[in-house]
Amino acid sequence: MVQTAPDDSTGRWPVFRSLRAFRAASLPGDLIAGLTLAAIAIPEQMATARLGGFAPQIGFFAFIAGSIGFAMFGANRFLSCGADSTITPIFAGGLLLMAAKGSPEYESLAVALALMVGVILMSGSLFRMGWVANLLSVPVTVGFLAGISVHILVSQLPGVGTKMARTITVLFLTGTHPSLDNMRAKQERLSQ
Q1: Residue range of the domain that includes 42
Q2: How far is it, in rounded angstroms, from Cα 138 to Cα 141?
Q3: Number of structural domains the chain divides into
């Protein structure tokens, strides 16, 4: 008779399941991976908060809360979670229809929206609804991401500075800019 090892994925205590496979020997590598993730994810989350009309520190706190929540209830220790910059402008646009950006109503509506999304995601997990994501075709997903990237780029141009925004706009629309023409003329004079 063949004996099988007991299934370790179903335990009595569902908290910190992702740490079951942790070994002390992997701690140095995990620390380097954690620092690398922090160097990338923290600025990204702070920028995502600005996209949503919030102070950058809100993105930092959301990243910390999401990381702790996922460590507690997630099953994979190699994943990280945080705010998603692709959906943030859509949520912000919906919130702006109901409240002014930066107002207490805006912030309370954002909290309510985040809680509703969390309940929907947890319900989807409980009812094993992950297969729904397979219904999205590749062209629809690529088109959505391309549109969101253009929206993010255009919405961030004023924050870059008006002179740089004008330069980028002129370069984009005409393919050239007076300062580039001046540089080319100087290079031609120097090369003679």
Answers
A1: 24-133
A2: 5
A3: 1
